[in-house]
Amino acid sequence: MKDNQAKYPQLRFKGFTDPWEQRKLGEVGKTQSGIGFPDAEQGGTEGVPFYKISDMNKPGNEHEMVNANNYVNYEQLSRKKWKIIETVPAVIFAKVGAAIMLNRKRLVTSPFLIDNNTMAYVFDGYCNIDFGKTLFETINLPRYAQVGALPSYNGSDIESIEVTLPNKGEQVKLGAFFKSLDDTITLHQRKLEKLQELKKGYLQKMFC
């Protein structure tokens, strides 16, 4: 994309004419790597969510992480000296392995932990929450993976990515617009899933 096109998008909401600002992700936020999560510590149902990449598949987590397969209590946090990621909003994504190639990201809005196959990017208040999630959806993260036996990222790989950002007012407008679209898509996906289950039930009763 040409520099002028990046600063002045072709499609904008009425009233916004200021140029967008080119920045590196490391200038407006920071990455946070995950930690080891031994099997013996897993299985908790109360406390702080400890997210794995597989949690992205849980119903309700299509856009924002709202539930986890594992939670850890404060006794575990104290004993293991785990530090909760409390600066939110953040976006989480796969850090290593084949899951990187799926290019999935999820928003997190409450304190959390992540395992060492996962990375978080914390916005540090610079971006509107919904705009930040939308911004990450435009980034093809696998392009920045280090090639090896297993593809992977370092924090510096992510923080060196260049993006263009509008002012806060335009961020809010854009974030709300794309969140509304996401909510509508999710609603229709769930309706479709229910219809598919209904069809399956009819087939089993009529043809079995």
Summarize the structure in words.
With 208 residues, this protein is of the alpha+beta class. Helices cover 34% and strands 16% of the residues. It has helices at residues 3-7, 25-28, 74-80, 129-137, 155-159, 168-207; strands spanning 21-24, 30-33, 48-51, 71-72, 90-94, 105-108, 113-114, 118-122, 162-165. The strands form three sheets. The protein has a four-stranded antiparallel beta sheet with strand order 2-8-5-6. Helix 4 packs across helix 6.
Ranges where pLDDT stays below 50 over 5 or more residues in a row are none
- What integer is the average pLDDT? 90
Q: Give me the oligomer status.
A: single chain
* Beta-strand percent range: 15-25%
The value of Rg in angstroms is 20 Å
Structural class: alpha+beta
Number of strands: 9
Shape label:
globular
Helicity, in percent? 25-40%
Q: What is the chain-wise order of helices and strands?
A: HEHEEEHEEEEHHEH
Distance between the termini: 56 Å
Q: Output the strand order for the largest sheet.
A: 2-8-5-6
How many helix segments?
A: 6
